[in-house]
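Think of the structure tokens as a kind of shorthand, similar to the way a musician reads notation: each symbol stands for something richer, in this case the local conformation of the backbone. In the example below we present two proteins back to back. Begin with the first one, reading the sequence and then the tokens, and try to describe in your own words what changes along the chain.
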Amino acid sequence: MSKITKKKKDHPIDIATSLMALISLMLYLNTKNIVLAIITFLLGTAISIFVVVKISLKKKKKDYQKLLNSGIDDLDTMSGLDFEKFILVHFQNQGYKGEVTKATNDYGADLILNKDGSKIVVQAKRWKDKVGITAIQEIVGAINYYGASKGMVITNSYFTSNAQNLAKANNIELWDRDMLIGIMSKNQGKNLAEKLKYETEVQAEYCPMCKSKLLIRKGKRGSFWGCSNFPKCRFTKDLN
């Protein structure tokens, strides 16, 4: 049986650029004015990129707000990856910087968190059943592999008594369903723009100059948008 491959979707910026190229070509054919056609293409492309970036940022912030305000019932129906993102958002809300590890070969850690020079590795288990000792063993291994100072296992369920005993013997911090409910009750309703540390996660999709990602950077005069391709690309713009 032949393998069916999915066609890769075109990025909105590529679509907008192609459309403006077509419009500019038609304009040139009708007017024979090459300068007008070029100006139309450049201006239209710039506006299109701005709109796409604006929409992308708004969607990302909306997604983070949804995660931040999720209730325990929402956690029970999340995918494993969304549960990991949910945990990451709540730690970012407390000033941590971090990342979700790749789906395979993560060496026992779903999240890697950093704050004040301290590294924490986390396993996030969105399970229906109780979490057993395997998760504890894996996070102990992750501490050694990543050189972390602390390990945690977080679940929307509960832990077996064996898992609790092994965690206690290895100084692993456990967060179960009851603790998550308590944490969420404190965080629900907070303003994402004020609380969420999105320097590493909320990104404009593309730089208008080189199409690399834009990141929020900090300088002497405060925060600003800067190209991730720096120093090859020095595009910057104000946050507001």
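Once you have a description of the first chain, move to the second and do the same.
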Amino acid sequence: MKNKDYIHRVPLFNDLSNEGKEYLKSLLHHKAFNKGDLIFSPNSQDELIIVVLGQMKVYKLNKDGKEHIIRIIGTGDYGGENYLFDLHNTTVYGIALTKTEVCILYKADFHKLLKIDHQVGQNLLKLNAKKSVELERQAQLLSFYRVDVRLVAYLEDLYNVAYNEEENSITLPMSLKNLASYLGTSAESLSRYFRDFEAKGWIERHHRKIIIKPAFWEEFK
């Protein structure tokens, strides 16, 4: 896959001028990773990492070494933007959840691009505002003391943004293990709550596909 193909996958670069897009092609660095490979860490250079194929898990390690997921980044999304503006990464890591291809834009090259086309900076601000809302919502979920309440709120949120009307279902965007980390619990506990929800007739679960039953809304609306 050539660099020019990446640009069309990334909303951040949608409004670049033709001159900006041509210049961007010369700045991007392509890398491929296998599942489980470390993509970036606190020891990495300051860089914007754009996922063009696959998924990247972004997480922190707590003082006790426990992993806390910040977000899952899929095709067309990106991470590392804060480090383009003199913030330093001391705790955040990114690993490939599947076979993953990324484009890397180093800090110095990003600022060169800004001199050619300011639109990328404006797009970055807009997309970062959306990401901030998502992170705030995760913090709200984690503020709920009970894990089952967190799961209910998460399923409601996912239904509102990713409901597939044709299949009458929603699809979990991550594995059970990663979702458990995102919700601040263990995979065993989360699996138990899913089974409990099924037993109560609230949902049907088929691997990552979840069908929300009418009884769910009767209980929580």
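Compare your description with these statements about the second chain. The helical segments are 3-7, 18-27, 107-116, 119-143, 147-162, 176-182, 187-199, 214-220.
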